[in-house]
Amino acid sequence: MRYLRDNKIWEEEDDINCDIIKISKVDDKIIRRLINNLMLNSSDLSENFFISFESLLKLGKKIEPVLDRYIKDTPEIHNLKVEIFNFILDFAKDNILKYILVPQLYHPDFITRARTVMKLEQVGDLSYINFILPLLNDPDDSVRWSVIRFLNTYKHLLKNPLVYKEIKYYIEKELNPVIREKIKELLKNIWK
What is the pTM of this model? Predict the structure, then answer.
């Protein structure tokens, strides 16, 4: 992954995912590409998702009209992504933020993401569940494991149809056998 280009025109390569550019050079096209990186299926979380999330937060008010238009023009946004878009929009509009730990949950560093989930588990803050669930698809095993631990600690959350649906969908895709077995155990024991 390259972060800097050498005197290239920005439109030359549309397939470049990450670059460091001046905020003054960011236009609506770049903002839409960042938003598109968030719109991927929740099963497609990648480093680009986390970098795009952080970039959109750093752009602040500049993203507001583009994001407003995007939300209005997009017929269907996954339930969990709606929460993310609303958070970004509130952040851009300088609204009072209810969920101040979301930037740490979606931080580009996987250690920060995992530690934040563990902190929320320790303090028992269940209000972040809609932001934690997408992390079931995190590219890093340690983040996924921290989400499973969170759900194991608060098993009653699995009785929520949205949470149950997400974890049921997710179990088929989990490649790590230890995590997959823990999820099966969780699902088996939710009604006990």
Answer: 0.79
